[in-house]
Amino acid sequence: MPAARESLLDAAYTALTERAWTAVRMVDVAAAAGVSRQTLYNEFGSKEGLARALVRRETDNYLAGVARALSQGSPAAGARRDAAGRVAAAATWTLRTARANPLVRAVLTGCWSDRLPAPAAVGLAPPRATRPGIPAQRTAPSGDGPLPGPAELVGRFCDQAVAALEPDWPEEALPALCTACETAARLTLACVVAPVTPPGPAPSAGRAPAPRTRRELETEAVSRLVRGAFARIPADARPGEHC
User: In terms of pTM, does the model score above 0.85?
Assistant: First the structure.
């Protein structure tokens, strides 16, 4: 029953935003979703199963947002050639999602507070080693497989970026593209782990500029880092104007 499943996951997420996971009761989740407790257990098996499904949904939604950000822009306007801009959009989505969604932030950083389900309970995947500059051969996890850990999730960010951009790039330039995407993914994670701190007001003889928000500062910082990663690609290895 997909509708009941989504309602239960929505109710579980709402409960998690209001209190620690250890204080979330299955009977309350079922009541909030408008179904019986037996339906909840039939769907997820246990509280650990509910937590696992909830983490999977939130990480899947995050990765779907990365894909949307990478696909934004009109090819006719030359947006396809702005590889750095598309990856920067995905990085900005990552920062905003990690700030708003504690489960996505925990999976990205590996830092699970005592308010969240324990990592062991949701079965996070161990890190996978990858060779720099070469796209990792990853597949979406099955329903019963381990959930992604930080390295795996960042790796999928990188893989999605490469897959979205490589049609515009010559084959001989793909290693450089892979390296830039991997660097951008790691820099994005660094910004999630250590958020930008707004500077104090600067002294000014004239009218003080309007203070910028943390979101604006984070967006500017990650965009600058991502564009820097792509700026290191030699000009003769980038897509031509004919793309």
Answer: no
